[in-house]
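Let's do one together. I've listed all components of the complex below, 1054 residues spread over four lines.
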Amino acid sequence: MWFSRLLQRLFPPAPTPAALYLYLALAVVGSIVIIVALHRLLGPRGRRWLIAFVTFIAGLFFGLEYFYPVHGDPAKNFLTDWIEPVSVMLTVVGAFTVGLGIYSLLQVHGRNLVQRRPGWHNSLAFFLATFAMLVFGMWEYYLHLPQPPPAVVPWPKGIYEILFNGLFAPLQAATFSLLAFYIASAAYRAFRVRTGEAALMMAAAFIVMIGQVPIGAWLTSFIPADSPAAFFRLEMLGEWVLRWLNTPAQRGIIFGIAVGALAMSLRIWLSLERGTFFSEKG
Amino acid sequence: MGSLEHANVFMRILFLSLCAIIVGSVLLAQRGREMFIRRIPGLTAIEEAVGRATEMGRPIFFSPGLDGINIVTLQALAILSYIVRLAANQATRIIVGLRSPMVYPVAEESVREAYDAVGHPENFRSDDIRFISDEQFAYALGAVGIISREEVATNFLFGAFYAEALILTENGRALGALQVAGCPEPTQIPFFIATCDYVVIGDEYYAASAYLTREPTLTGSLVGQDICKAIVIAIIALGVGLATVFAPEKNFLLTWLGGGG
Amino acid sequence: MNPDLYILWAAAIATLGVYTILYRENPISRLFEHIFVGLSAGYLIVATWTLNLEGKWWNPMIHDKKWYWIFAPIVGSLFYFIYSRRLGWLARLIMGLFFGTAAGTFFRQFFPIYSPQIYACFKPLDYQAGMGIQGVIFDLLLHNWIFVIILLTVMSYFFFSIPHEGRFGRNLGRSAMLGRWFLMIAFGAMFGNTVMARISLFIGRMQFLLKDWLGSLIPWFATRGL
Amino acid sequence: MSAPRPTTVSDRIQQIPRHYVYLLLAGVVVWQLLFPIRLPITPSVPTRGVYDAVAAVPDDKLIIITTDWDASTQAETGPQTQAVIHACFQNHKKFVIMNLQPPMGVKLAQDLAEEAAQEYGAVYGVDYANWGYKYGYENVLMAMAKNIPNAIGDDFYGKPVGELPLMQGVEDIQAIGLVVIVTGLSAMTEMWVGLIQGPYRTPLAGAYTAVMAPIYYPYLDSDQLKGMLVGAKGAAELEAMVDRPGKAVAIMNVQSWAHVLIIALILLGNLGYLFARGRGEGSQP
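Okay, and this is what the predicted structure of the assembly comes out as:
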């Protein structure tokens, strides 16, 4: 891949561990110098321009790779080889925002705890849970246990299992399953024949819902399966509603979204969303 | 053809024309051409919903959905920015609950900016922009916790939502919050309709910023979008016509769009 | 150590703890909410390191001596300038990079996502050789007509810049109203289609609570079929 | 927000507090898990198609059951496989198990087949066999169409399949009377349709997870699939047809009850609404 060759030419790997640390230090110092220089040299207009430029280039890079003519097999253009490494880099850069999220959590719960606000013990539980998962998660990872793990589980792994399989996963599953209750009560409350529209929604939900359980098939089992009227058997009718009434309506929505999202992308890319985000000041 | 890995000539032309139409109508609108937009009830309700929170003296909860930084989330943040401006004028608190750590700095910065823009930087509270959890259901429980503990008066859900949507809205409803929800993808809309007071459906979501701010750039873009939708309809009509006349392998439009073969 | 028993009990208590929220938000559900959020925060850090940074960033930088990877945390650290008024614009710079990426990514996805959806709508409205019509009562042609009509009326609902009065507008208004009806049918169908999946989730949890957990205390529960 | 306290009956059934709805649902599920009362199960049209296709196979032809599934979809595909095996044994059809994708499926299916074989006193190699996991997707199918013993080679136990009694006279795809594709993976059906059903008119039937089933309804319309099992529901219906109620029947029974409850609640709410409106009270807040 010529991208990595170019990168290696421009930024050759450090020859020795000592050189590596020297390079790293130089890179840090150099970056700080560049950042400070940018900050000093650019006025508000210059900063705004630079932000718009970076946005434009990033959008152009990903967009152009798709639309620029391609040659050869596998089909490529001059940008294709860059897509994967650039995406990896952006993922890595983005991963450093995790610190901000964690900081936000620590801020809120730390304050609860320090000021002994009502419910501070919950924040204590939060800290214990975070800390336990962090410590034992890392510990378990660096135990490098073989697969499958040995018969006698080392205790850090045991505690990790309790945290993950005993708490994390069940909490996930239990919260997810709350939806069974909520969907039942939402159905009871929402499906009333108040208006024509509500009645249509209810009828469709009704047919599809009951067509999916065996009792639905039983209700209309008096209609012979090989007669032309078999269409009206609930399991067939429900499937028909999903396939022939639901699909085109969903497509209709989706095409609208496609155009709406395209317009939004264009406005973001060209920094036309003035004022919405932060292009007003530098 | 039959590949969608890269664009072909037809796609290039089509894409460029769509872009040109949108940008063109933005430019026309910026020159001062008047543009009409029909009423969108779900969006009209936003103002009422903010007003309710102000009257009750209780905060607003806003969720920009579960996705990271993408177009759906950016549109949600644009709507957030508008709501913050409304609320900041009335000194109403807004709590933003986030699922993606990446969105956290963006939300923080755009909310701060909105407070600045209406001249109330002192009302901005960094604490109210909260990262909750990146785990879908931990996020849902955490958000329900905030809605109930802060006694939220109004609940705004704009962005990409998945199964957890109903957990948020059903609890919000039980707690008596006025709820306005909007999601471009259709899958969660039925549950929003069942549990929320106002729902913004499909493309209305992307029309929101234009509708709310009436900024020429955005209304122009909306008109451009309508023209583009008409083009999509024309393409489908042509495709249906060709499919009626020819066998699939002779339907050139199908091939141009990367199908068949 | 053998953690199985602890896992069983922790899982049962956590499940019941979450279910208390069905009554209302309460001290117990609040405690489990905080534990859940805490565990996921800890797990987020672990996963970010083990699944992302270690392999993609740390190892290339330290072991392969690709020192230029140091630029990733430097660029990433620009996000942290949101807390500074004076240097805040640097955070916007890096956000601009991600905004552009979001736009560019959408440009890339436009045809791969929507093209197949568009050409799947190219349905013949007249008899085609090899169509293999199966007659129940509604045959394929009628289906195709219904499909195209629903698609077009629904799309007409999403036109925002045309008033629903006047010569062209009045027709659009009618079509949009029809489109709204079809939308409601579709939403109802989607709702109905989800019910079973959601109930299975609860059945799964109840099987765990009744058979695995209660069954370990009272064997009778373990014998009840499931 | 909060509606006035309901006083009349019609108001009360319109405004059942959500906690009662939750309790009712939980109650019905627990009750039916512990003390099941079986609601009637009538096979739907696609399920009946599968059973009829098995029954219609001529006695001198083999049925292939492809078990392209693993633990991740076992809750649905396991009972489906089991029910299909019962249908084969009960109709005295010879069948073979094979699999093309997750190698685990063939072992899981073998366990199910052995369990059922004991019940019917069937003998491995005579009444049924297991061709094992075959690597190569399309290539396997294309080779099978021409020469089965060569294409398959050894069975699950490493014995050449040509030596098995039930394989006597089996040369090419013409010896196969039906292929039942049990899978949690997309693209398997397309492969069988393109390489076997299309060119050689070998009947196919499918068994899919509920999530993927909608993709294959068109194949049913066009008769490319003779029948189809849709998720746990399809499995339950076939279990009922072969009179071997198992896991799927138990789960679907709970589902049926839960659905009946929800539908009853919706009807009740509407009844209250219509009743109140009929008396001109209205209950608009």
